[in-house]
Amino acid sequence: MGKSLARKIIEQHIVEGKWEPGEEIAIRIDQTLTQDATGTMAYLQFEAMGIKRVKNELAVSYVDHNTIQIGYENADDQKYLQGAASKYGIYLSRSGNGICHQVHLERFGKPGKTLLGSDSHTPTGGGIGMIAMGSGGLDVAVAMGGGAFYLTCPDVVKINLTGQLQPWVAAKDVILKVLEMFTTKGNVGVVLEYGGPGVATLSVPERATITNMGAECGVTTSVFPSDQETRKFLKGQNRENDWAEFKADDDAEYSKVVELNLSEVVPMAAAPHSPGNIKTVKELAGLSVDQVCVGSCTNSSYVDLTTTARIVKEGAAPPDLSFVIAPGSRQVVQMLTKEGSLFDLLSAGGRLAENACGFCIGNSQSPKSDAVSLRTSNRNFLNRSGTKSADAYLVSCETAAAAVLTGKITDPRDLDMEYPKVEMPEQFLVDDTMIVPPAEDPSKVEIVRGPNIGDPPKNDPLPEAINAEVTIKVGDEITTDHIIPAGAKMKYRSNVPKYSEFLFEVLDPEFFNRAKKIQKNGEFNIIVGGLSYGQGSSREHAALCPMYMGVKAVITKSYERIHIANLINFGIIPFNFENPDDLDAIDQGDKLEIEKVRDVIAGDGVAVVKNVTKGTTFKVSAKLSERQKKIILAGGMLNFL
Ligand code: MIC
Ligand code: SF4
Questions:
Q1: Which helix (H) or strand (E) holds 349?
Q2: Which residues line ligand 2 (CB under 6 A)?
Q3: 628 Cβ closer than 6 Å to some ligand 1 atom
Q4: pTM above 0.90, yes or no
Q5: Domain 5-264, what architecture?
Q6: How far apart are CA 506 and CA 638, in angstroms?
Q7: Which fold has domain 466-640?
Q8: What is the pLDDT of residues 452-506, one digit of tens each?
Q9: Which of 545, 555, 540 lies closest to 585 in space, CA to CA?
Q10: Cβ distance 221 to 123 under 8 Å?
Q11: 360 C-alpha to center of ligand 2: Å?
């Protein structure tokens, strides 16, 4: 049988192991990207490894998350990032140039290459036929140093696209449909590969919307073939030379094939508080809307914003509706400005935000209390907008624009208007003024470290035994936004002691004080939880800050891919309950003991946990590769290296 596209690209990059789904493999990483919120720590860790210059083909450092600059912290980070990029051989996409995934697609991504990014939406690059994956910053630092990236050899699932999208139905509706089919859990170790005749009907930005939000399914990545559409996109970016054809064999083998007829997709929405809570827009129609935000790395391309502009052109946002526009890149804003669409957006009452992450991560434009906010972004976790009582719904630009006109959730097909179909332009406006190449002579570059730049915290090797208290017990589908918030708190990313104060804030604001007290008493902290722990972002602070607070183990029913890798990288044991029902018998505050834990980790990973408070015992296990065992025994990746 022939090979899938994912297999072909991954196999070409394997440096350890062989193609065997479920087994650990190591692959060579061609390109890396970081963003500022995860990047400062990644470069500090890169420096801690003592490497003088990046060794992979291309490394880009983006500044797009912390662009608000209230206080000195963000600007300090940016100055540090600028120096680090210049000295270590990294391209810098300056603040104001746009969101990493959109800009990387436009200016750097190459079909057939591997891309590792310290951001969970790095799979956006799958839209041009890359194997693009998110990871913690430490894994990216290792890849920049020429080290391999370790992952579970994936199961490749084909989504066979047929038909074509109908007017008013968008790529966003397709990925929301995929989320309905696959949900947000149970997809660890899977690559979604798109194929079939429907592929040719989708432009690259549409494909990128689909691969971007595939991250919400918890898959390793998603990928489209690189075909004539890909060539057209790269040609329009003056990068035709970067194009090459990449596709699956006609008789490729997949672990599963799922059919999706694009002609049957209708406008969809993800209702609060999960991207997996899928409804049709029709089901929600009539709900009064307080805020509409168009943008984010999922939906902020030229076509997305021009479509929005054409729809809202003849109307205006009602007085009690706030309409926010955050373009994905400087290229998009420049084109919208030149062609006049920006005028139409502003005439309709649009509030132009910086071309950055902004509202998507609650780093501005938090809605009012109890608001209904319609967003074209990819995550609507509790409090992610910055307003805990608000309900965020994720929709397409078409559905968002319809709400601007009507003030209510509206199926855009019900608007009394002909669909303003916008084609992807043949030529984009290319201007790389805000991309700064690295210095030719690194010895001349001095890295400025303002007061916001700390050292990466250190950890001790794993102790012989763990005497700990259950600091918090959480349920299923705990996201990294629950574990440690982003938004306005993100400015403390380079200051781990300060940022740790916000651990689990949204669930239990007392977590930090409890954890600190337990730590002071000379005990460790343990977190217990349910299914699919660590959904969402790649933020390694969701492991790094718990490490700093003395968390030695997490015990859950299952983990998401990036988060479990981050836990291991920071020396925290990711145990699973052998019997998931044992979770019910544990309470916050219970004292737990695990004896000879070093032997457990060096051995089969199975341990008996004594619940001293309840006088009971239960079994847990950690499935670790030999490499992962060594990392945990050493107390994390930095010690291991
Ligand atoms: C997100 O969308 O949650 C973020 C903010 O981009 C994160 C990265 C981070 O927390 O810095 C992600 O997706 O990985
Ligand atoms: Fe930025 Fe939002 Fe995309 Fe994360 S999901 S990279 S915060 S735009």
A1: none
A2: 65, 99, 119, 121, 296-297, 357, 360-361, 377-378
A3: no
A4: yes
A5: 2-Layer Sandwich (3.30)
A6: 30
A7: Aconitase; domain 4 (3.20.19)
A8: 898 889 999 999 999 999 999 999 999 999 999 999 899 999 999 999 999 999 9
A9: 555
A10: yes
A11: 6
